Amino acid sequence: ESGVRIAVSVVRGGEPEPFAFLDGENDAYVVGTRAPEPPVFRRYALLGIEHLARGFDHLLFLFALLLIVLDPRIARAHPLRTLLWTVSGFTAGHAATLSLAILGGVTLPSAPTEVCIALSIVFLAAELIRDPQTLVFRRPWLVAAGFGLLHGLGFAGALLALGVRASDAPEALVAFHVGLELAQLAFVTLALGALWLARGLEEKRRWLAYAVGAVATVFSILRAETLFA
Predict the structure, then answer these.
(1) Considering only CA atoms, which of 55, 57, 52, 51 is closest in space to residue 217?
(2) What is the spatial distance between Cα 210 and Cα 203, in angstroms, rounded to a whole number?
(3) Checking DSSP bridges between strand 15-16 and strand 20-22, what pairing results, if any?
C-alpha cells in the first residue's frame, strides 16, 4: 500500500542470483526457493519500461524538450524532424553513459547525479522563458545529447542497484535500453497528442515553463538535502 518496492538478490559463489521483488503483494522471499527464471531480455526490458514510467524527472525533462522544439516563437521548416533528432540525441547521450557504467564500470555518486538531473530540468524551464535565440533553441539535439550523458548515469544507477550478473550484462544492457526507448516513445507520442489537443500553446507556454521549473526546483532542493544528510 505504501508503494515501496524492494529488490532482493542473493549472492552465491561471487555471482548474484536473479533478483526478486518484495512489495504489498509479495512480502516474503525464501532463500533457495526460486520461481523459474524468466528470459534475461524480457526481464530487463520490462525493468527499463518500469524505470522510465516511474522516473518522473526523466519524463519532465523530455516534456521540456518537446516544449522547446515546438515553441511557436521559432519557425522551424521541419519541426517533427527536429523533434526526432532531439529525442535521438537524448537517446544517444544516455545510451553512451549507460553502456560505460554497465560494461566499463564508469560511475559517479548517486546523490550528486540526481541533483544535477533535477537542475537540468530547471535549466530547460528557464530557457523556455528567455528569448528563443540561444543554443538550446537553435541546436536542441546537441543540448539533449549533452544532458543525455547525465541522465544515463541515473539510469545506470537503477540498473546497477539490481546486481546484474556479469554473464548477463551485455544482454541486460540492450534489453533495459530497449525498454527505456519503448517507454520514451510512448510518452513522447502521448505528450504530442496532449499538446495538440490543448492548442493555443503560445498562451500556455509561459505557464507550462513556470510549472515545469517549479516542480524541478522542488526536486533539486529535496535531493540537495541528501548531500548533507
Answers:
(1) 57
(2) 13
(3) unpaired
Whole-model pTM?
A: 0.77
Q: Could you tell me if 115 and 224 are in contact, meaning their C-beta atoms sit under 8 angstroms apart?
A: yes
Amino acid in position 59: L
Contact 175, 44 (CB under 8 A): yes
pLDDT tens sequence across 126-148: 998 887 888 888 899 999 999 98
Residue-level pLDDT at 220: 93
Can you say whether the dihedral through the CA atoms of 196, 201, 204, 208 is positive or negative? positive
Query: Crossing angle, helix 201-227 and helix 110-129, to 10 degrees?
Result: 160
Beta strands in the chain (DSSP E): 6-8, 11-12, 15-16, 20-22
Q: Is the dihedral of CA 54, 224, 137, 86 positive or negative?
A: negative
